[in-house]
Design a protein that fits this description.
Chain A: The main subunits of complex b-c1 are: cytochrome b, cytochrome c1 and the Rieske protein. The complex is a heterodimer. Helices cover 62% and strands 1% of the residues of chain A. Chain A is globular and about 75 Å long. By secondary structure, chain A is mainly alpha-helical. Chain A folds into two domains: 248 residues, Cytochrome Bc1 Complex, Chain C, CATH 1.20.810; 107 residues, no CATH class. In chain A, strands 1-2 form a two-stranded antiparallel ribbon. Chain B is mainly alpha-helical. Among the domains of chain B are: 161 residues, Orthogonal Bundle (Cytochrome Bc1 Complex, Chain D, domain 2), CATH 1.10.760.10; 29 residues. Chain B has nine helices and four strands, in the order H-H-H-H-E-E-H-H-H-E-E-H-H. In chain B, the strands form two sheets. Chain B has a two-stranded antiparallel sheet. In chain B, strands 3-4 form a two-stranded antiparallel ribbon. The radius of gyration of chain B is 27 Å and the shape is extended. The chains are: A mainly alpha, B mainly alpha. The interface between A and B is large, with 67 and 60 residues.
């Protein structure tokens, strides 16, 4: 679908005409990321991060395929094959650092993308499906990143795998057999490493598939925008090409500069030094921490230190850790405010900037810190707000809040006036 | 209905967290964790500068050669260097002939070509540094039940690795009297050595660099003080952990300059295309 004023694909070259009659792939591209896709003219730079996320996925797939050419998923040699790649393969060090830091860049981009969605209400009708698929992508990314981190078979790889797969052991009755079945043994070993490698290679392509669905679902209603007011007329939009190709294009440059500074000058700053020690099941690291992008959820896992009635603390932690992400699936139905954009929601905006963002920042910090006081207590308060925000604050705020008046249209918000607005009955949106 | 359900689920998690927080706070307030000797006496690595520091830093090959000499004459008695081959030493500025001579100076495991039995033969440039112990059991037996870690990646395997190695080598000292006064049970056990830069304060390694001139540097080099030798071997271990460091920074400079240029062009194209389109 598209707006009625969208440019139509008209192949000029006879070959493109021939192609269009048989396999209209160029038409699909034209209508998806070309001149045939009208996009709101008022998108700000937070809307660039979707395009960047797609770019990150491609970077990870390309560098990952090259890494896999030199890697052997065997506990006896896995660590050495990575070192061999870094030392003896031409540009191997760059591939390795690009893949490891690329994962971090991917998560930075995706967190901005998700929080853009929170603030601007991107999850609301008619874009629920875009949002749901996005949460699926995020879950798949976390699974992929977790298994990827295990592959070098360093100390944190092994102990991280042990802790995370140990979570399944918290499930009542079936937990322990399930955990052994997943690992193919009593602890992470060769069987686990092999299946992690297999899945780590598979899942990115599953992600790619869901990304295509995500973009497809997005193209039905079209992109949201910072006012949250739906597109009404041609003056509200510009064609994706050349306008947003140019905007995304130069911003890719900014992203690439940040990425290359990380890769070439601080390649190990986001990794844990312990992962340069080969895995040793007999020696537990002083602090087992996952990669930084898991810290908020790791903090939530560790925040449950007491049994709650008949539920063991560990099970509560596991429920909460998964629940913290699963709750995003329900967001379109928890936040019932008809206004999308946080800019026109005074109360929601306060809870977003002074509640959710600080809580998330604290969870990030505490998840990476040692499991000692006062970090545990601080993370408990932050986690408490996190759950209250989504499950209690949002439903109540959306019921009692009086939103600010919305502009009649995107055009009016940009130009200060819209001819069509003069003709429309006052107050209609 | 959905609203009530969501608030109930929200209360479930928040009350459970409040319960955990309340009990944790009570314990923390009434029965705070006792201070430990590690917590109070462990020191962060010292400040130390290396030629390879910073965006434009490069290895000082002369220093790497000195560091290699320290490794060869001191550290290699107990510590392996598994990921480094003799051929890699060419990067330190040694000629092909020198690399061959260095390799030949090490005995590496081989196979007797006539009997097929395991033996030792002089090393070739393609060989890796031989391990000082046959296995971990032998290593433990010879080192007070501790396995000397492999050094190839040491400067990347510790927080602030190069400074850590330098601080550890220069940080051996007598146990402070205040420590024993405050923690009478924390006396350094027999056979271990006190070093505040080590995570749990006592390590099995005896001070390896004990006197100035322990390694004899050739003419034109600085005086081999303990401090100088420690710095040199730390620099050498930066190289063993990251041989591509120089190339990485050079590539980074070229890539970043190119990207800056491309981004400015891209920005100008963007401004040009959007000119006249208010947004």
């Amino acid at each position: 679908m598209s707006f009625p004023w969208a440019n139509e694909y008209k192949p000029s070259h006879p070959f493109m005409q021939w192609m269009d009659d048989r396999l209209p792939l160029p038409r699909l591209v034209f209508n998806s990321v070309g001149a045939g896709y009208p996009v709101p003219r008022n998108l700000n730079y937070f809307w660039n991060f979707g395009f960047l996320a797609a770019l990150c996925l491609i970077v990870q797939i390309v560098t990952g395929i090259v890494m896999a050419m030199h890697y052997a998923a065997n506990t006896a040699v896995a660590f050495d094959t990575i070192e061999m790649t870094v030392r003896d393969v031409n540009w191997g060090w760059m591939m390795r650092y690009a893949h490891a830091n690329g994962a971090s860049m991917f998560f930075i981009v995706i967190y901005v993308h998700i929080f853009r969605g929170f603030y601007y209400g991107s999850y609301k009708a008619p874009r629920e499906m875009v949002w749901l698929l996005g949460v699926v992508i995020f879950l798949l990314m976390m699974a992929t990143a977790f298994m990827g981190y295990v592959l070098p078979w360093g100390q944190m790889s092994f102990w991280g795998a042990k802790v995370i797969t140990g979570l399944f052991g918290a499930i009542p009755f079936v937990g322990e057999p399930l955990q052994q079945w997943l690992l193919g043994g009593f602890a992470p070993d060769n069987a686990a490493l092999n299946r992690f490698f297999s899945l780590h290679y598979l899942l990115p392509f599953v992600i790619l598939g869901v990304v295509i669905l995500h973009i497809w679902a997005l193209h039905i209603p079209g992109s949201s925008n910072p006012t949250g007011v739906e597109v009404k007329a041609e003056s509200d939009t510009v064609p994706f090409y050349p306008y947003y190709v140019a905007k995304d294009g130069w911003f890719i440059g900014v992203f690439a500069i940040v990425f290359s500074l990380m890769l070439f000058y601080f390649p190990n700053s986001l990794g844990h030094p312990d992962n340069y020690i080969p895995a040793n099941p007999m020696s537990t690291p002083a602090h087992i921490v996952p990669e930084w992008y898991f810290w908020p959820f790791y903090a939530i896992l560790r925040a449950f230190t007491q049994d709650f009635f008949f539920i063991p603390a560990k099970l509560m932690g596991v429920l909460a850790m998964f629940g913290a992400i699963l709750v995003w699936f329900f967001l379109p139905w928890l936040d019932k405010s008809p206004v999308r954009s946080g800019s026109y929601r005074p109360l929601y905006k306060k809870f977003f900037w002074f509640g959710l963002i600080p809580a998330m920042a604290v969870l990030f910090y505490c998840g990476g810190a040692a499991a000692a006081e006062p970090y545990v207590m601080i993370s408990q308060l932050a986690a408490l707000y996190y759950f209250a925000h989504f499950l209690i604050v949002l439903p109540i705020v959306s019921a009692i809040e009086k939103p600010l008046p919305l502009p009649y249209s995107i055009t009016e918000s940009v130009l200060g006036t819209d001819e069509a607005a003069q003709l429309a009955p006052s107050g209609s949106v | 209905m959905a609203r009530i359900l969501s608030i109930l689920v929200g209360l479930f998690f928040t009350v459970a967290l409040a319960w955990s927080f309340g009990l944790g706070f009570y314990t923390w307030a009434t029965d705070p964790a006792a201070p430990t000797a590690e917590h109070e006496f462990h020191l962060h690595p010292k400040e130390v500068a290396f030629a390879s520091d910073g965006a434009f830093g490069k290895f000082d090959k002369q220093q790497l050669q000195r560091g290699f000499q320290v490794y060869k004459e001191v550290c290699s008695a107990c510590h392996s260097l598994n990921h480094v081959a003799f051929r890699d030493l060419a990067q330190l500025g040694y000629s092909e002939g020198q690399v061959k001579a260095i390799a030949a100076g090490f005995q590496v495991p081989g196979v007797d070509p006539t009997t097929g039995e395991a033996n030792l033969r002089p090393g070739l440039p393609t060989d890796y540094f031989p391990k000082p112990f046959a296995n971990d059991v032998a290593a433990r037996a010879a080192n007070n039940n501790a396995v000397p870690p492999d050094l190839s990646l040491m400067t990347k395997a510790r927080h602030e690795g190069p400074a850590y190695v330098y601080s550890l080598l220069t940080g051996f000292q007598a146990q402070p009297a205040e420590l024993l006064k405050e923690f009478p049970d924390s006396k350094t056990p027999n056979g271990l050595h006190y070093n505040p830069y080590f995570a749990n304060l006592n390590l099995a390694m005896a001070p390896p660099l004990t006197g100035d001139g322990q390694v004899e540097y050739g003419p034109g080099n600085p005086k081999p003080t303990v401090d100088q030798m420690s710095k040199d071997v730390s620099a050498f271990l930066i190289w063993t952990a990251e041989p591509s460091l120089d190339k990485r920074k050079q590539t980074g400079l070229a890539v970043t300059l190119f990207l800056l240029f491309a981004t400015v062009l891209g920005y100008m194209a963007y401004r040009n295309i959007w000119a006249g389109k208010k947004h």
